[in-house]
Amino acid sequence: MSTEVKVPVLGESVAEATIGEWLKKPGEAVGLDEPIASLETDKVAIEVPSPVAGVMGNYLVQVGDNVAVGAVIATIEDGAPSAGAEPVAARTEAPVAPASDTVAPKAEAADAAAVLSPSVRRAVLEHGIDPGTVKGSGKDGRITKEDVVAAAQAKNTAPAPAATAPAVAAPAAAGGRGEERVKMTRLRQTIAKRLKSAQDTAALLTTFNDVDMSAVMAAREKFKDSFEKKHGVKLGFMSFFAKAACLALKDFPSVNAQIEGDEIVYFPYVDLSVAVSAPNGLVVPVVRNVDAMGFADIEKAIGDLGKRAKDGALTMADMQGGTFTISNGGIFGGLMSTPIINPPQSAVLGLHRIEDRPVVRDGQIVIRPMMYLALSYDHRLIDGREAVTALKTIKEAIEDPTRLLIDL
Question: Are 385 and 374 spatial neighbours (Cβ–Cβ below 8 Å)?
Fold first, then answer.
């Protein structure tokens, strides 16, 4: 007897997803609620749990297929896998001849490369490793994060084999330069549509300023050890900017508002979206009620969201809502940018790298750690005066953090 595996409810207003990968092979033992597949939605990756314990049956859809909520994607069979038995071939897999010493290893590597956990996918992207060339040490030859790290270390310490690899692949290009075509993930497609929609719909404008980071850096240096000892989290710059943004948004509510039809919605709270780079693209999880939080709570919340984004563990609830966004391109070395708003929000604050620059203070040229700030906003709702003054408020709060304490 078999049990159908259906696409679960994906979240509010999300009707379909894309099969990202299969986490279990046909014939493998499956426990109750054990993940058997990963789905890619418009916002996050969601794992599909098994409704019963048993044996993985047939795949009814292929990786890359779009599936609706409630659609049957696989079956779970009763019983247990036979000892030493080979997994039952899936409909989407080509048969493998086990007697061939040349074919089996290739198929085994392809299978291992096709089943990557979120943490392994992140390691593959970070180290630039082709998963098809990595021999997995995990269960059933599955690739682990440690396998990817080891492969990266071997690649760095053995330049000669790496140099000869292109020569082997070159003949397969048949005179071409070997371009590769990869179907866009659902998340990447959604990112593209949303960003283009923001450009087409909103009257985007960006105002710039620069900020002297001396005071914040001095405060961080002075209190970082005692802060971490007391709260169990490092004191970073994001909490300062989050509090400074809340100060500005309180004084200029339109920067924290949204347009819905012919109405303007003003929010009495700040749900801060934090742009984070994840393995499948940029995501913006939300820190709720950041205006009511202290520095330690903000650092913990942002750190937790960032880690879960990199591990592919964010949920739909983590992504919903948000009234204002902070995007930190400085961690990648960006000097200046014009960030695009995150619809339906009306503004986004862009942070950039800190670098020593000559500035004039009291008639003297001095060196200060400076950062460029950028505030992109929807000019349909936010006037230039409000945007410029809001950004100036953020600048002043960072240059004199005492303002954060006395609400000035």
Answer: no
Contact between residue 382 and residue 347 where contact means Cβ atoms under 8 Å apart: yes
Give the integer Cα–Cα distance in Å for 301 and 395: 23
67 Rama sector, left if φ>0, alpha if ψ -120 to 50, beta otherwise = beta
Give residue-wise pLDDT tens across range 275-286: 887 766 678 899
For residue 330, the tally of other CB atoms under 10 A from its CB is 18
d(CA 377, CA 206): 6
Burial of 3 (0-12, 13-18, 19+ CB in 10 A): middle
- Return all residues near 235 (Cβ < 8 A) that are at least 6 apart: 220, 223, 224, 227, 228, 295, 299
Catalytic positions are 379, 383
Q: Which amino acid is located at 27 in the chain? A: G
140-168 pLDDT, tens digit per residue, is 676 776 777 788 777 766 544 444 444 44
Report all structural domains of the chain as residue ranges with CATH numbers, in order of start.
2-173 (2.40.50.100), 188-406 (3.30.559.10)
Count other C-beta atoms under 10 Å from residue 392's C-beta.
16
- Phi, then psi, of 59 in degrees rounded to 5: -80, 130
**Interatomic CA distance for residues 387 and 393, integer angstroms:** 10
Q: Which amino acid is at 394?
A: I
Q: Which of 41, 40, 87 is nearest to 63 (CA)?
A: 40
Q: Is the pTM of this model over 0.70?
A: no
Report CA-CA distances (Å) from 353 to 148, 224, 294, 327, 372.
30, 20, 25, 12, 8
d(CA 249, CA 253): 5
pLDDT greater than 80 at residue 106: no
Rounded to 5 degrees, what are φ and ψ at 173? -75, -15
Confidence of residue 407 (pLDDT cuts 50, 70, 90): confident
Structure tokens at 279: 């393995």
Cis peptide before 344 (omega within 30 of 0): yes
